[in-house]
Each structure stands twice: as structure tokens, then as C-alpha cells.
Fold each of these.
Amino acid sequence: MSSSLPRVVIVGAGFAGLRAARQLAGAPVQVILVDQNNYHLFQPLLYQVATAGVSATDIAYPVRAIFRRQANFSFRMATVTGVDFAARQVLTDRGPIPYDQLILGVGGETNTFGLQGVARHAFPLKSLDDAIRLRNHVLRMFELSSQSEDPAARAALRTFVVVGGGPTGVECAGALSELIRLVLVKDFPGLDLSDVQVHLVERMDSLLPGFPPQLSAAAAETLRRKNVTVDFGWQVQDYDGEALCLQDGRQLPARTLVWAAGVQAVSLLKQIGLPTSRQGRVPVLPTLQVPGYENVWVVGDAAYLEEAGQPLPMMAPVAIQQGELAAKNILCQLAGQPLQEFQYKDPGSLATIGRNAAVARINRLKFSGFAAWLVWLAVHLFWLIGFRNRLLVMINWAWDYLFYERAVRLITAQGTIESQPKSSTPDA
Amino acid sequence: MSSSLPRVVIVGAGFAGLRAARQLAGAPVQVILVDQNNYHLFQPLLYQVATAGVSATDIAYPVRAIFRRQANFSFRMATVTGVDFAARQVLTDRGPIPYDQLILGVGGETNTFGLQGVARHAFPLKSLDDAIRLRNHVLRMFELSSQSEDPAARAALRTFVVVGGGPTGVECAGALSELIRLVLVKDFPGLDLSDVQVHLVERMDSLLPGFPPQLSAAAAETLRRKNVTVDFGWQVQDYDGEALCLQDGRQLPARTLVWAAGVQAVSLLKQIGLPTSRQGRVPVLPTLQVPGYENVWVVGDAAYLEEAGQPLPMMAPVAIQQGELAAKNILCQLAGQPLQEFQYKDPGSLATIGRNAAVARINRLKFSGFAAWLVWLAVHLFWLIGFRNRLLVMINWAWDYLFYERAVRLITAQGTIESQPKSSTPDA
């Protein structure tokens, strides 16, 4: 590969970055993908790792394996610390990486809206480690509650609160309730299910914003049928690890709080020095360029772009389509051709609420129940990168479905080990 | 279950503890199994987790699921801190557990023979977390070496040393070499394999002590064919994370040292106050009782017992047979019948050295190569508890075998996260 070819540096191996890199296959450019992890994470299934449905390794795939056959591609595992726009260099913990074109697909992170107790004690659900930590914690709560003699302490151990009525919150609450009622009940013979509470807390008065009202209502109804208590209009004040405090003064003792109430673009964008807008996202032109930088493109959750007066949602389909367009526009620019503007093609919305239940909107079609669940299954398996992962996830799901089992209910040491051999720190 | 039945407390969910608990199914006793983890770990395949062959969750199985159908069984997840023999109580971080009969199957840990640098910088291979940490580290070494400009630093990053010529060391060195030469070489297009070194270091002049000489020789020969440098007669002086120092003054720069050179019984046994012998193991009577305590039994790696003047090896078959006998002897004692003495039925020995290669001794039969490898495969799949895990491991192996892939080459955050929500610490 000639080093005189233009260097396109892509930061972030999420949906947007991956799609952009793939789009540039065969083009007369060098592609350098940078990420702090060596894998792509299929975020839509994170909640399944957290609820012991699939193994962490089933939903992550090594970046190098994905691009093995792409000759103009190389990967750098490094943590980006900044960008020197004047010198056209991405700054990382392993030295600078020069670029001619830069695509930032750095993604989102949990937004706790300044609630310090939530930031400290609640469980986010954005990274593989978040999910494993939540899984370990939930299982540990049952081990502890089986040994606790104090009724109040036991109640708090057996109360699980999910905050946020979006797809992540809905899916997580449904899967958590099923994990407890279908699987753990067999592991803990003394467990009285009437002692166990799963709450889904939502600030507004309906679930799944952006879905048609009848699907939102169907989701709430299905969750209730699965023994999830859906609490509308609850405004979280704070959380201290022992009890959830609401703004009206009420308290709900709970040792587990999953925070799925907000996302924002990663704070790296501010650190880089780019202007940010709502949710910390960087406003971009319809061509996906940052105003004032013709060779810097921001895509996915990190980008702020409106369509029909509404910001585009922070979702995988937007990221994938933007990653594709940014790559195409770079090639247009290099070829001296006019750039295209982004137009979101909405593929619809899907959310699952456990066994046999989901809600789906595809174009004008709206449906819920078993049919929607089958669509959800098919779509997610299709998008999971790599046939092998697809196969393993399918086996796990089939097993779960047929035998009411959760394969991965292990409490591992991840997130609890505080020391490790010095030589394994990335300081070479 | 009547609480007036004798309480048999088993500490440790390893091979010995599991077998003992199973043996007591249906007997007129209460069985309480205590372990700090909620899963049984199939230790013989740990090295496969470390070399990205199988997922951590494939070789671990939740204890509660194993014993779900055993009515007289209950599980306590707790860390044992001591035993009050006078009061007949096991002391744990979650309070005391009274016993009438006590089986200690607490297992072994890595023995670094007082080498402080080794204890600090080398990678042991005894727990699930050890294996994940080693996997992350090995993959990280390749990411770092692909970005390193300094030839000396790069050489150290690409030198992998396994110390110890027993089955764990042999299997680990073989699997590591194959991971690099068959899989990673495809991920790192610029990698020159002549730069990569895998050493197996052994103090004595042959591998696999306890195997017939021709099998030891076959193992060394096979490893060499798989590009492992076998260093006999190397005496380790210490390791500082950068270079291995030998007693004769030689140095080998290497950023990775796997320590598979020694095991000892866990230090908990000393903490409990039991007298210990060689390798920290507790001498037991042939009935497996601790002298002076008719209701305390020690089994597996934790027990010291000689047969024909030789200490029994710290291996799964010994542990399984001792767990069975301890349980039987407890029932004999409760029924007023005479106790049996332990007699080891040696099922043979097996060690694999990667694709299509293993050495096997079964009774008087000794063989190596492909046939031994097939036997190794069958035996290990048979012993993996739980059909589902068996199936998943088989798929991973088939994939690996057919496509020269390693599924699980992810660098995850395990072992590197130093903080977590306070509420997830087991302090309820």
C-alpha cells in the first residue's frame, strides 16, 4: 500500500466507524481505524449480557477479524486524548496519528443529568464491563438475600429498579423479570416471588418515546403481565445505593438501580475542543462535516443534526447510514465531486419485552406480540456481525427458550479486581 | 427437610466438593456447600480461556444449577475465614455455619517458591480471572508490538515464556504457539513470525513428570515442531516484568511470563490452624479424616496422603475419588459401620499439545499423536459438566479446527477496572 495515498483516520469501532471503514474498501485511500478496545460491541444486546442471557464474548467481535480481507485497512488500539487540527493529527496515548481526513464516530455515554448519587451508585449499561458488572451484581443480590435474616434488608436486596422508559429500559426490565421468575426461582428453592420487585421508572406518562401510542401502551401492558411494576411520572431526585429518592419525597429501598434514562455524546468531544450542542453532540452540516473543517466529519451518536426540526435519534440505524455517507463524501471530495446531504431512511423501530413479546413499527405497519418478537429475533441475529457469534447467540436463546435457563449466570471477578501484574498495563 | 438431620458442610465447589455433595444425594443428611464463587470451574480447560479458544463462561457452571434436583442440598456463597472446631462452626464473611461433619475440598493455588518478582509480575493460571487476564495481556502485547518502533522493546513484547513442564505448562505453550501462528498472524498483516518466540522453560531435563519417558520425549518433539523452544535445565532466579533472570546469570527479555511451575494447597488451611505438610497440604488418615478430628475430612489438592511412598498427585481424578470416599465414610460413620481406606484407581494420564497432537497413557497403553488427541477431546468433553457447555465448547473447537480461528480474542476490561459502584460490593 502506497503511503502517498490520503490517510482517512476513523475514531471509534462502533456502528458508524465500522460502516465507514467498510465503505472505503477498495478506494484509493489508507484507512486507519482507532479504538481503545480491540472489538466491536453489538450494543443492542448488552442488556442480554446483563441479564445472563448471552455471554459477553457472543456480542463482541475482534476488529482485526472483521477487516482481515480489506487490504487498505489497518487498526490501532489506542485511547484518543485529543486532536491537533492545525497539524492534522489525532493525539493518542500511543503517540500522534496523522490524518488527511478524519471521521469521529466516538459514540455516546450514560447521562446522569448531574445526579451525583446516581453516577456513583447506579449501574449504567453502555459497555461490556457495565453489563458484566450488572450481571454479577444481580446474581449476588440473590445470594445475599438468601442468607439475610432482616426483612427490610432482604426487601431492598430483592428490589430491582430500572430507570428510563426507552428501549434499553424496557428490554432490561422485561429480561430481568424473566431471569428472576423463570430461572432464578429454580436456583433458590426458598425464594418467595411475591418478595421480589422489578420496577420500571419513567418520568413521563408513556414508554418508548417515538413509537406509536398503541405500541407504547402494549409495551406497558406486556411488562405488567410479566410482573414488572411500571411507575409513570416518577421523578428521580437521587440514589444512595440503598434507596431511590423521588422529587416528591417518597423513597423506595433498593440495592439495585439500572440507569437507562439518558445518553449523551462522549465527553471526549468537548476535550477535543469542538463546539457541542444538546446532549454534548457536535453540530454538523448536512454533509456531516464540522463547520469550518472541510476534512473533519462527525457521525453517529456524536453528531448533532436535525431533520424536520427534530434531532436525529442516537440509534444504530442513524449511525450506520451516517458512517456510509461520510465515507462516500470523502471520496467525492477527493475526486472533486459535489458532496451529498444526509437523509435518514427510517427502517422502523423494534423493542422486545421478553419471551414471545415485542413491539414493532416497520413503515406504516405496527404490530406487537409474537410476530413482532420473531421480527426482532431475525433482525438482531442478522445484524450481529459474524456467523459464529450468530450461531452461539441462537443456541443460547434456543436453550433459554426451551428450558427456561440462563446460561451465563456466573458471578465473575470482573470489576472487582484492583490489582494485576504491572507488566499487563499498556505502557510499553 | 428436617433440621434435625446431621449437617454435612462441604467447603469448595471443585471436583472433590462437587463429587462429595452428589454422593450424599438422597442420604439422611443436610448438605451445605460453601464456595466464594457461585460456579464450578472446569480447571483443566483454563489454558484454553487464556489462549482465546473458549469463552470463560463455557468452562464454568453455576453450582445451584448442578444441584437443582438434589432436595437435601443447599448452597452458600461465602468466603471461609476459619473453622471453630470446638464449636463445630465454619467461619465465613457472612457469619458462622454450624456443622456436624466437615469436608474441606478447598483446592490448590499457584506456588511461586518465594520468588517475589514472579509472584508480582508473572501470570498464574488457577482461576477464571487469571485466565482472562492472561488472554487480555497476550492480545495486548501484539497490539503494542504492532505500534512499537524500538526493536528491543518489540522483541520483549513478542517473547512469551511459560515456566513449568507439567501438563498445564505443556498445554499452555502449545496453545499459545498455535494462537500466534495460526490465528493472530492473520490479524496482524505486518507480523513476522520469526520475530515471535514461545519458550517452555523446565528445571529438569524432561517434560510431563509421571508420564512414561517415550511420551515425555514425544511431547517435547511435538512442541518443537509447533515452534515452541523447549529449554531444559533452566533454573529461574526471578522476573521483573521485563526480563527473566536465570540462576546462571543469563537473561531473557520477555514481557510475558506464565508461571505453571508449581502448585500448593491454599493458604486457608494454615489460617484454619490445621497442621500442614509438603506443599501446604494437610496430612490425612487413609480414611481421609484429619488425625484427632473424627468429623473433619480433607480431600483433593488440600489433602496429603501417600501411596506406595509417593504423595498422591494434585489432579482431578484423585480429587473426585476422594470426594466420593469422604461422603461414603461419613454415611458409614453415621450408620455405625467401619470406614473404608482410600485407594487411588489411576485412570491414566493425558496431555494435549494443540491441533491433532496429544500424549496418552491408559493402563499399560501408551500412545501419542492424533489418536491420543481424539481421546483427549472425548474425555474432556465428557467431563465438562452440563450438556450445554459441552455443546458450546465443541462448536468453538470445531470452528477453531476448521477455520484456524480463535473466537474469543477480545481484550476486555476485566482486571483493569479499579472502581465500581459501592452497592455492588458484597457487604449486605
Amino acid sequence: MTDSQVDGFQEIDQFFNPKRVALIGASSDYRKLGNSILMNLLTSEVEVFPVTRNRDRVLGVKAYPSLEDLPEPVDLVIIAVAAKYCAGLIAEARKAGARAAVVISGGFSEIGAKGTELEDELVSAAREAGVRIIGPNCVGVSNSRLFNGTFTMMPERGNIALVSQSGALGGMIIYTTRTKRIGISKFASLGNAADVQFSEVIDYLGDDPKTSVVAVYVEGVDQGRTFFKSINDAASRKPVVVLKGGRSEVGGRATLSHTGSIAGSTQLFDGMVRQARCVTAPTLDSLLEICKLFDYQPLPAGRNIGIISNTGGAGVLATDAATELGFHISALEENTRQELRQVLSPMASVENPIDVVASGGRREYRVSTELMLKDSNVDMLLVICGVPTFAGMTQTEHAAGTLEGIRTADEGKPVVGVWLAADVGKPGKDLLEMNRVPCYNDPYMATLCMARVAEYAEMHRSGETT
Amino acid sequence: MTDSQVDGFQEIDQFFNPKRVALIGASSDYRKLGNSILMNLLTSEVEVFPVTRNRDRVLGVKAYPSLEDLPEPVDLVIIAVAAKYCAGLIAEARKAGARAAVVISGGFSEIGAKGTELEDELVSAAREAGVRIIGPNCVGVSNSRLFNGTFTMMPERGNIALVSQSGALGGMIIYTTRTKRIGISKFASLGNAADVQFSEVIDYLGDDPKTSVVAVYVEGVDQGRTFFKSINDAASRKPVVVLKGGRSEVGGRATLSHTGSIAGSTQLFDGMVRQARCVTAPTLDSLLEICKLFDYQPLPAGRNIGIISNTGGAGVLATDAATELGFHISALEENTRQELRQVLSPMASVENPIDVVASGGRREYRVSTELMLKDSNVDMLLVICGVPTFAGMTQTEHAAGTLEGIRTADEGKPVVGVWLAADVGKPGKDLLEMNRVPCYNDPYMATLCMARVAEYAEMHRSGETT
């Protein structure tokens, strides 16, 4: 790191690792954002100073009429009051000790000329005072290990950072992390990005030791070159996955009224993401699913995929998807096939894709997993379980067998599960995911995620930074 | 219906509407399929006669040593004993009154020459005795209103029929219906389809008044022309959705060892599905999701789509997906925009896609839904809810508003929901689905399903059978 990078890191770190936080617009009215944010802050591990002129106490906590009245200096100020008051509060924030402010309030450039004027004033005030601003028109910032400075849920704790242009969409993705149990390290919604830019947050997350993968939702970026340089730099240290909104012409128009940014041509954007050696997520659902695979498993050494299934049809569908997405369904070594033949049912297929058939249980999954992983023709393994209840077996047994096989083989090759049958298979799926084998409900989604991971591995195997 | 069609209908109907069922291979050993099938039959509304030489009672029910010993004639015989015994049982089945037999047992043509011989014997025995056979090498048959003659779960009750070449995959899809609460009318797994063909079951389901949509999983068909004629005929009465396994060359090889059939060229197959005025499902996950939309909602009159969202980013992503999939994002009537402007927040967008913004609640969803549906520029409506908790609102309120808007507009146009935030949004999603507004977790999946429905509507608006 150069000195200026260290400074940049510390500047952005103030947003994610504050000790004392003031909230302007703290409210006891459940219809106000300042109420949701305060509830979130009060369940965080930071000291919280609610600021409001209306009451002495809010949600049972002592409140202060203004930043001037705070008993101690603060590191971060969160602002949730009407747009016209925001610029005036920045100098006060600096006096109160903060060099960082999150402006939740909307009513800035996203609403047109009048708002743009207010946004310009806000930025001027920030430059003058030496305060950095995230927002305005955003959902806020959270650090799952420390505090929730947003009006959305605290994310499930983990290693994936999410930075989103759309606050509400970002907030919604955070909600899904609780159901999907996908862990988040840090979340930032940048809104209009009037001061702190995507590139700065991405630079920071690239250096953040608590973050293993960076997920980005972006509609359009003003400073394209800086953005692509940042994702390129971050991608040399960890995977960066980009979901682009506003790909279509009309979608692009919608972003204009949404965050006020102009979405560029899709093809151009996708090409630049690839040139920056990052990968794209084709759909909302796939964004975190791709990140989960990056987070849980090592990178593959090549495109030779092994497939194990107990459901012929699912093996067929996975093979279709893998072939379509550029994988090779490797021919297995003679030795692998012979050993499989000894263990599996006579009805089983010992050619890739392996079908252990419905009678295949814990032992069959263990042996197939181990042998496939040890086979030098297999770079990554897809394990499918479709039938949970034959002969009283459960998908948990199949999952346990898979885990045993991975441990015995100890090859460091990526393994992915497709655990079908929805909630019926959930205990098996949970067992695998708790052991960091990512599981998917659909062979296509699993294969898509593997394709993105293979793509990233290839781009970074080939060497030099572009 | 011609006379021969009536006969065909009655022949297949014996499999789905038996009164008395005998199970050969009934077992009290939980590791045997004959145990799972018996448990399923005993919780059905048919009279069950377990047949086994081993015991007098199985699972507490009187068992018979052979079909000859049954006290009454039966309509259907289910066979789950070793392959070599199956052919010999067919004449006995006929003597016991049955003209229909489901052969669950594997070990026939799917294992090679020796099995093919047994399969030929089985078919000869059936032709000679005048018994129709489903299978062998299959999971069985169920009718959610009457009985479960499979070793998989009883499906959730509903209107979608599923016919699957892969038994295990079909069984797995049935499992997901319980979690997804997608209702099934009848399920048949055809396995090797040695006697009863896809085309016959599809003809039957096309005529079945309890079935509104037919879902087909097929790997390859021996009698292609008959298959496509049947789906074409059925599609003139109700939508038929086809998922094809074995699209890739290697996938095709996998089907050979799986069900012994040869998968044809993908492009050719897809083209023939379209020519038969049916639609394809691109992935396993999408098969029932597409059927759900067909089942719940009317067909659209055109490709003009209206989009409502409270999450700008999700509106942008839905617009992208809709544009990519061939929808027009209609310009709304002047009147619609004016009325929306009066009701929605000044921050809201009243151009399609409408953004009611985070403060939009029950009222805003109600009014937007009503106005959009009444707008003559809108043929179908996509309603997205991404942010559940602003100001204490719940996604249930948004769902309630949407339902009110649909009732007030009363336009008979299809409406689809995208309910984000995973389990947090589940109560709202459930409320919509209980009222037959299908909901999806991802804008892309919702739009994909709408595209298939629009495609079917277009093919059938244009008139004549091809």
C-alpha cells in the first residue's frame, strides 16, 4: 500500500468501524426512518447518541438537542432529516469530531434540478469541513461484526461484502442473507454517490481482511475509468462479482429517475468487467449464489468437471448445463471406474456423470466423492442428491457421505452440491453448507456459479494485470 | 372424442382412478420399495390388497400369498419384485380382474441386452393378456385426489399434471410441490415406457377435466411423431410445458444409460415443441414455476407489460429482463399518469415502470394496480415488492393492496408478483399465492414465466392447428 492508499483506507474505514455514532433525526415514531435506524444502532456494539429537538429520550435512551450538546466526540454521524437541513449539519458534524457522515435523506439529485442544487451544497459543505459523505438517498452502512447503521436488517455474519447503488435493492439482498444463511462482512448503499464513490469503497473492500469476495450492484457510474480500475485492483486480491441494472434501453431510462445515473451499453459494460478480470452475475438471485461459491471453496485448476448423482435425470440436466457453460465432462481414469464398479450397485453408471442410483447411500456418496476428487481428470466436482427417502435413507446421510469423501480425498478441489426436493432435503443441504460446501436447488444455478468461478480462475491464472 | 379416443381414455384412466389396488412385493422391511409403496397406498382412498409370500400381515394389514387368493377383483396391480418374476405375473393380474399394471421394478432394457429380453417378455405377456403396463423401471403413478401408487410423496393437490420419463427426477419434483405449494393433479413416471407411451398419457391428461396444465420431463422418445402429435392435440385444450433432458451430446449419452432412450438434437426438438404450439422450460426449477403461472392466471392479450415496484433497483432489473424476453414496456395513458401523480409520493415515478418508492404501502399498491390494469396499454402486470419494513409496513399490506387493486379493476388481465426479501416477505407471498397470484423470488424468473405464457397465447391466438 502507498501512503495515499492508507489514507484512503482509513477514510472509508471510519464508515465501517466507528466507536461512537450520532444519529440526527432519531425518532420514536415507527413511521420514521430515524426510528428504524435507531433501533438498529441500539442493538449494535457501538456507543449511540440520538439527536433530536423533540424529546429528551428516544426509545428509552438519552437524546441530545444538537450535535453541539454531545458529551463526547463521535466518529460517525448518520443524518436522516429533510434534505434542506443536511448541508448545514456537516460543519457541526466535524466540530463534534466526525470526519464521516452517512446521509440517508432523499430529495437530492434524484428528484431533478432543485435537488441537484441541494446536493451541490451538501458536497461543498463536506469538502469545506473535511468530512466524507456516503449518500445521500441511501439505506446506510453496516458491518456485521460491529454495527448496523441502516434502516434494513443486520446481515448474517460472514465474508462477502456488498456495495449497492440501489439502497432498497441492497437492503432486500441483505434480508435474503438471513433466509439463505449467506454471510456478509460489510454492506454499503451508496445512493447518489455525491462524494464517496464506488471506486473508493471497492478499493477499501479489496484491502479489508474480513472480506473474501466483493459483490457489486451498479446501475451506472459517472467515473467509469476509476470504477473499472478499482474492480481490477480488488480482483487481483479477491473475486469481484458485478450485477448491472439498466441493461436495456428502457431499464436505462428507469435508472435515470431512480438514482439519476446514466447506464451505459450492456455489451461495453460486460466487456469492461471481463477486461478488469471480474465476473458478472446474470440475475439478482445469482449474485450472492456466485459469491457463496467463491467464499466457500477453492478455485478450480481447470474445466474438467465430475458429476455424481443418485437421480439419473438430474445428472442428465447437470450434464446439459455444464456442457452449455463450457465445462468438459471428463472421461474418468480406468482405475476410478474399476474401484467404483466394486462398490456401487450393478445398476449404477461408473462413467461420468456417475449415477449411484436410488439405492446409493452414505457409503456410495463417500466412495464416489473420494475417487472422483482423486482422479486427475477431475478439476471440480458436482454432487447431486435428488431422492431422499429410498429405504429410509435421508439426504443427511448422503451429505455426510459427501463430506467424508471430501475429507478423505483431501485434494483441495472445489465441490458443489445440488440438493433437490426443496425443504425435504434441507437438513442435508444445511449440513453441507455448515461445512462450506455450497448447495443449490437447481443443477443450472450450480453450474452457472461454477462457470463464473472457473472464469475468474482462468483470468487470474493467465497472469499479468491488464 | 372418437370411440377409439374414449377407449384410450378409459384404458389410461384405470391407472389413475382405480378402486381396488393389489401390491405385489408388499413388505414390512423399510429398505424395500414395496414398503414405501404400501405405506403410501394405505394412506390413500383406495382399497389395498398387499401380496407377499412372506407374511400374513404387512404393516398391520392382511396380506395374500398370491393374486389368486384375493377375495375380490382389483382394477390395478402394482408390481415391485425382481425383474425376472414380472412377466409371469401379468396373466395372474388379468385373472384377478386388472387390465392395468404398474411395474416399478428395474433391471430391464436400461441395463442392456439381458434386461431387454426380460422387457420383451413383459410386453408380450401384457399384449397376450390384454393388460396395459406403465413402466418398468419407474416410480409409479399418483392422483392427488385419490391415491398414491408411488414410492415418493403424495403431491400437493392441484391442477398441474406431471409426466416424467425419469422417475427419480419426477419424484423429486413432487417433493418440491410440498415446499412450493404448487398443486398437482396427477403424476406418472413412465420409466422405460415399454408399453404405455408418453403420447397416450398426454392424450389422457389433455382430456382430463381435473388437469389445467401438463408438465412433461422427457429425455428422448422412440415414436417422435406420435409424441408431437399428442402434445399438439393437448395444447389445443390446455398449455403443455416441456423440459428436455439430454440436450448436450454428453447429456445425451447419459440418458442412454439412464432410461435407455436416445435424445435427439436440441434445436430440432425445441423447434418441434414450438411447432406443436407448446412451450419449453429452460431449467428444472422453471418447469413448475411456468406451469403455476398458466394454472393461476388468464392468458395475456399482448406483450405490453406494466411494472410496479417499491424498489427502484428491482424495477430496473425487471425492465431489463422483460425487454430481453421480448416484452414492450408500454407508455401509460395520460389519464393513468395523472391519477397516479395525485396518489403517489412526489418522489414516485409515474412512468412505466412505476416506482411507488419505499413509503408506498397498501393504498399505493392498490391504486397503482387498479390503474395499471385499467390502462389499455397494459396487457399484463408485474408487481414487485422489495422493501417490507419501512414505517412498520409489512409485505402483507403490499400484497393486500395488490389484491384489492386486482378486484377493483376486474379486467381479467394476468398479474404476477415478485416478492423479494426471501422468508421475510413470505407472509405477503403466501397471501398472493393463496389468491392465485403467482409469486417469484427473482424478477428474471417471473419475466421468464410471463414470456412463456405470452408465447403460448400468441401461438394459440393465431388460430389453426399446425
Amino acid sequence: MSVLIVGSTALDSIKTPKGENPRLLGGSASHAAVAASFFSPVKLVGVVGDDFPKAYLDLYKRHRIDLEGLQILPGKTFHWSGEYEVNMNHRRTLLTELGVFESFTPTLPKGHQASSFVLLANIAPALQHHVLDQMRRPRFVVADTMDLWLNIALNDLLRLMKRLDAFVLNDSEAHQLTKEDNAFAALKKIHRLGPKYVVIKKGSHGSILSGPKGIFICPAYPLGKVVDPTGAGDAFVGAMMGYLATAKGSIDDHIRRAMVFGSVVASFCCEGFGLQGTTRIKRAQINQRVKELERLTKF
Amino acid sequence: MSVLIVGSTALDSIKTPKGENPRLLGGSASHAAVAASFFSPVKLVGVVGDDFPKAYLDLYKRHRIDLEGLQILPGKTFHWSGEYEVNMNHRRTLLTELGVFESFTPTLPKGHQASSFVLLANIAPALQHHVLDQMRRPRFVVADTMDLWLNIALNDLLRLMKRLDAFVLNDSEAHQLTKEDNAFAALKKIHRLGPKYVVIKKGSHGSILSGPKGIFICPAYPLGKVVDPTGAGDAFVGAMMGYLATAKGSIDDHIRRAMVFGSVVASFCCEGFGLQGTTRIKRAQINQRVKELERLTKF
């Protein structure tokens, strides 16, 4: 089965203590789509300007990503520029040029409306709603978010959460949303807001799932060096959804393994600037690291 | 086989957002000894003043802890008073009264000098050296430490590390020691300082072992509520050593499981003030949580 992924498609200029790279392919939907493409066909919905490099369209195509839902409009592609601190855990935004993204309305091509697996990658909750309004009974809907929407669009987000099967957020967002320092206490509160499955991402500390079958503690793949963590969270949820879309049986049968595959693809993402780490790998290398994680966590 | 545990024995007055408790039994050796006692016989070496409550001596005895090496000297017991912040991750010291601890010299009774398993719990590195100087070829020596010794006794600590089999420290101490933000990069640097096994404790994020068989990612037991984390790190390493001391076969065969047992005893420690969480449990409850952790991490 294919995964429908809606989110931002951007050019990222990223500065880290390890180096600098201008106008890389980025955005939540780009990272999630490439990650998901290792597991299942992907339909991407987003918007770019007419300055969007052909090389990046070719990159999507190499990953067999369906671009029917990618609007190419006159104007500039969304451009984000940011800088990471030495410890890679905090970043600050240097520049945000919305360009054509400012008036983006994600209109789904007819063929996309019956998709079973839907990933609402990080984007304004109002747009995430707009996508769901066009869908016909999807089987599994996941949304990611960011602190910005908790700050400026909390009501939209709270309404969205009632329409989701799964909600993914990082630990600081979970704290912001629930005022709970304890992740397990936060998970309980987030369930009450709607989603049956809640995943809290903790960066290098892994992630936690809370769902009908209880808690799953998902390890992060150990990296001795992080080049650029941008998009790792998107890669995580993208790979998770790609894996789930092709697995036979119930979500509960596969969601733990889906998260481990997400962890591994996120680890590759961190090893290069932008999408460079994710795009240079093959599925066999992903499987290899999943096997390694099995060994590293066995007791 | 028994475990020899040397460290501080103290009265702790602990304030957290959840409450306040004066003059609880505390100290690194107390927490480690009670935790180890669930698995193997323990010989405690430490010092207390003549104000030390008989109830606490009885508590040690209920855990069948050998007190031959516990000096009771005229004067006051080491008294520490501290306060935890809301998120329980940071504490500040309100008061430190060393009392008889100021001139403590850990002299080992004859029968202790041939111990196979030695835990040098948190205490000045010079005293940890002094203990090792009295030992006859121990099989497995582990030391814990704290930021204070990195600040004021770094050279003693660096010399000590060459005499250890295993070194245990928390993530902020690992950063302080190696200047590495990345835990896996830090582990490599710490191995170069001597120890064959290095364990970095990450509180609610679990712990990481690096040893001859590579990395082990050890989960923390999920707690929805932490009452008082004081001594959890000592309980972790105490239980780990207690488990190892009774396991047959090589250290490598058992150290992962030993850490998981350590994680679980540490979780009980966090559920009560001082030693209240650890002393109210039975071995069966520990086994139960270890089984649960197996389920919570399986994929």
C-alpha cells in the first residue's frame, strides 16, 4: 500500500559546528517521503516555487515518489536557514522566507483521496485539517507537529488530535502541551486529547510509544558523530509509516518494529547534511542496522 | 559470592516538590548496599557518628548487611541536605556537614581483604585508592564517582581509573570528563583512561554500557511519578554488582542483565524518599519489573 505524505517542501540552509551547506533539499515532507520510500510507494503533496532545482525533482523521482500532488507555482520556494549549537540539541532559526508556501493549500489529486495511510507531516494544523477533509476513510492517520503550532495554532491542533490515529511529537513539545516533565505522565494526558497511539521522540535517547498494547521503549541507533540532525524526526515518522503501509496484519502487530526502522533511518539522516545521509543508503543497510539494534538491546 | 561496598553513609534531609523528609538514611554505600542485598551477601565499609539512629543499624541488619567494616566514631554522622527542582533532574545542595566523615579512613577488616567483587561507591578517589591498596587480587572492581571529584580530585580519579575493571558515571560527568557531548564518543575516550567496562547513566533515559562485547543500550523502567531520585544511581550500581557476584560464568555473560536489574532497583528507589522505596520491596517484585522491561523493549 502507498503512503500519502503532506507537509513542507523547502530549501534549507544549515549551519552546524561541523560545517555549512546552503539551499539543501529539506522540509518535513521531503524528509518523510524519502524515508518512507525505502518501504512503500509514496505520494507527496506539497508546494515549491519555480526556482526549485530540477536536481531535487530528480531526487524525488529516483525514490519513485509520486509528484502528482506537488504544486510548482510562480515564486520562491520556502527557504529556511538555521544554526545548530555545539551539542546539536538546540537550533536557532536565522531566516524564514515562506515564498509560495505562504498561500499553500494542499489540494489532493482525485487518486490520492482514497489513500489508506496518511502522514500529516509538520505543517500548519489548519492545512492538516484541510487534507483530512478531502480524504475518504483512511485506515491510519498520523500527524507530526512542532512548537510553533503549539504557540500560535493550539486550538486547531487540539481539534486535529481528535481526528488522528497516532500523534507524534518530541519531548519538549510534549512538555509544552501537557505541562508534564515526566514523559509517561505526558503520554497519558495526550491520549485523553484523542489519539490512540502517541509517540514521544527523544532524539539520541530514542522514543516511546504508548498504545493499546501499552508502552514500547524504542532505542535510538548509537551514533558517535552527528553531522546534521535536521529532518531526523521527519525521517523517523516517514520510515515508520512506510513500514506500516506494507506490513500485513494489524497496526499493533507491526508498530514497534516500524518505530525501530524509523529510528534507523533517522540515524542515517543525522549522518549527512540535509538529505545526503538518507539518500546515499540502500534498504540492505537499514536492515543491517535494525539487526544491530536487536543485538545492542538484547538482555 | 559477597560484594564489598565502600562509600558514604549519611543522614539525608531531602526536599522535593512532592514533599520534605529530614534525616533519612542515605549515602552512596547505604543505597548501594541495600540494593545489592537483594542478590548477594554484602559487606559494608563506612563511618557513622554516635548520633546514628539504631533504627538504621537495624535496617542494614534486616538486609543481612555485614557491618564489621562500619566504624561508629564519637561525633556526628555526615549530614547532607538538598533540594530538587520540579523536573527532578537538577538538585542543589543546601547544607553539607561532614562530621566524622571528614577524617574517615576506610580500614578493611582482615576478612574483607580477599573479596572478589568490590564496589567503590561515590567517595573521595583517594579513599577509593586506599581501599584497593588493602585488597588481595579482587576479581571485579567497579567505581562510581561524582562531579565534585572531577572538580577537586581529578588526578586521583584518573589514577584510580587505571586500577578499575569498570567505571560508572552519569552523562553530565561523562561530558565534564571528556568534553564530548556525544555519549558514544565519550565512552571511547573513557576506555582510553583505563576501564574495560564503562557505564554512562542517563537517569530516566536509561544507561549505556561499553565493553569488550560492544555497546548495550539499557532501558530505564518507566515511572509515571518520581518521588525522590536521591541514591538511584547508587542503587543501580549496587544491584548490578550484587547480581554479578552471584551469577556463574563470565562477566560478559551477565553484565547486561545485571544492568537491567540495576535499572529496576533504581526505579523502586525513585518511588520513595531516601531508602523507603527500596526497602519496602521483595525480590519477586524486582523480577516482575525485569520481566516487564523485557516486554516493553521487545520488537
